[in-house]
Amino acid sequence: MSTSALLSDAAKRKIDRELTKYPADQKQSAVMSALAIAQDEHGWLPNELQDEVANYLGMPSIAVYEVATFYNMYNLKPMGRHKISVCTNLPCAFSGGVDAAEYLKSKLGVDWKELTADGKFTLVEGECMGACGDAPVLLVNNKRMCSFMSPEKLDKLIEELK
Amino acid sequence: MMIDYGPDAIILKGLDGSNWRLKDYETRAGYQALKKILKDGIKPEDVTAEVKKSGLRGRGGAGFPTGLKWSFMPRPFAGPKYLVCNSDEGEPGTFKDRDILRYNPHILIEGMIIAAYAMGTAVGYNYIHGEIWAEYERFEEALEEARAAGYLGRNILGSDFSFELHSHHGFGAYICGEETALLESIEGKKGQPRYKPPFPASFGLYGKPTTINNTETFAAVPYILREGGEAFLNLGKPNNGGTKIFSLAGHVTRPGNYEINMGTPFARLLELAGGVRGGRKLKGVIPGGSSTPVIKGDLMMTLDMDYDSIAKAGSMLGSGAVMVMDDTTCMVKAAERLAYFYFEESCGQCTPCREGTGWLYRIVHRIEHGLGRTEDLDLLLNLADQIQGRTICALGDAAAMPVRAFVKNYREEFEFHVAHKRCMVGPGGYSTSPVNEPLAMAAE
């Protein structure tokens, strides 16, 4: 076993809990949650971190890279402290999703996939989050869903996260 | 305050957003169906027979008869078999399973336990859409409650039936809603669909017999076993049993979920949602999620909401995501956004889909942006034909069908765009306000 530099013991405990869900000979099943746990801790997934996940689960590194590059909520490069994904898909667009995105772009002074100068925010275009009835909808760091995001609520959110 | 899901609700009945816990569910007759089955020693095959009788069809989109699907599972079988719930709800317009997961998670758990009993499976997984983390955490908590109460685990309620259920969190890939891609994803791989056959009932999760149903499908099961298959069937109509949750989005006054009896007129459903926003005219409806062909407003107003009626009108009931479009909507722009989605989400495995979705998007994009050519319309239809039916899974079809329907139903708008290099109707329906105020769209 190589010594881990990036994956903390706390993260490993969380991964261990995920491993209990799957048959003992199917540790690879925990790779998606393991990468999510690693990303929560580190902000993004450098290759070295993915290698450690691979080691921990007894998988070839390439099999971990395949997963990390396939699913679009993994961050493959450094992000702002807050990644904001705004849904602009059609049902959301009909209820202000694109308006909300444009408002944030001009408020933060960035375009899609760009980082604000203070390093705090990255804005990304999300695809369907399965919450179309709550449009405009956005997601902060993959986990916190914010609904009915009017300009006032967007102002409040940015203020809170700053 | 109770959430108003409509007068017919059975799955979403009596919910206020906070009464999701096990004790609340038990006051709504929760876990009674399971108790009855175990106490009376009802045979597994009789459980499946009751589901067959109910006319329940898959609520995820395909509408396959649920009882029939269950009967495909080999029994007896030496070795593990699996039960999987598809809560990877990501078909644009669909947001019904999220309400089940967050407001009534135990109805899904009970439905899965009963299904596991019917098919003799000892382990199940619920695959939850990546973007709904709070719902995933709530479901984990509900599972803990069910374990502590003896509804899950070894020797459930003192019987010799054991079943363990876990949740698996997705991480942002529409394709994982396809059942074999979902299985690959649980196995810790890229979510790329498998060839069928073999079907999951013979070669599923970890290569073992597996049954996959949608969240709402499982959630209908406790009612069927408690009240009887016939009672469920009679809520709807023959071959279209029970209630169905419709997610209404787009240009409606009150977007949200409405659970209505199968076969209810669309006009009544629209009325429940407060009608078209701002009292405007209905232009078109996508009746069952973004991949189902758009239907013109006038025709839609004459249709009933069930699998067979919508199929007869040339579309599909799909997942029950109803996208309402008023007369301010630019159908070229709508088609462009959907084409972009499928281009984004193609998994890249099959060439007709990987390349074709890109071409569909680029051509609709250039028409929308005033660079289209007259021959582009037929090129689009040709492309759609080249994709559909030529891929491993249905994503190719899902990309081709909406574009074809938009071009066929609203050809004059596409032609206007090509001829005049601008939109026939104005800002495109993206405005948030009930009246059509011009909205500056970002130049791409």
Structure in words:
The complex is a heterodimer of chains A (162) and B (444). Chain A is an alpha+beta fold. Helices cover 44% and strands 11% of the residues of chain A. Chain A is elongated. In chain B, the strands form three sheets. Chain B has a five-stranded mixed beta sheet with strand order 6-5-11-8-9. In chain B, strands 3-2-1-4 form a four-stranded parallel beta sheet, sandwiched between helices. Chain B has a two-stranded antiparallel sheet with strand order 7-10. Helix content of chain B is 42%, strand content 12%. Chain B is an alpha/beta fold and 444 residues long. At the A-B interface, α2, α4, α5 and α6 of A face β3, β5, β11 and α14 of B.
Give the topology, please.
The complex is a heterodimer of chains A (162) and B (444).
Chain A: H1 9-19, H2 31-42, H3 47-57, H4 61-70, E1 82-87, H5 90-93, H6 97-108, E2 121-126, E3 138-140, E4 144-146, H7 151-161
Parallel strand pairs in A: 1-2
Antiparallel strand pairs in A: 1-3, 3-4
Chain B: H1 22-27, H2 32-40, H3 44-54, H4 66-71, E1 82-87, H5 96-103, H6 105-119, E2 123-128, H7 133-148, E3 164-169, H8 179-186, E4 210-214, H9 215-227, H10 229-235, E5 243-250, E6 256-261, E7 264-265, H11 266-272, E8 282-286, E9 295-296, H12 297-300, E10 304-305, H13 307-312, E11 321-326, H14 331-345, H15 351-368, H16 376-387, H17 395-409, H18 411-420
Parallel strand pairs in B: 1-2, 1-4, 2-3, 5-11
Antiparallel strand pairs in B: 5-6, 7-10, 8-9, 8-11
Helix pairs in contact in B: 2-9, 3-6, 3-10, 5-6, 6-9, 9-10, 14-15, 14-17, 15-16, 15-17, 16-17, 17-18
